[in-house]
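TOPIC: backbone geometry
CONTENTS: sequence, structure tokens:
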Amino acid sequence: MNIDKFDEDEVKDFLNEHEVKTLNHLPTGAPFSSILAYLVNMDMINEINEVGKRNNCKVSFYIDDIVI
């Protein structure tokens, strides 16, 4: 499949072949959920990390948990 342009039928075939039942949201516990959460929030995570560095704090992130 070309990443720039995809065929809708090809996507539907892939979903059927892999028995994907949920189409309008991420399934809870999906293995890619944490990766997507990071990518969607990357700007915010970087900003929080910079504020922590400026204040001599260590910052730790795990999915939706932030520890400063």
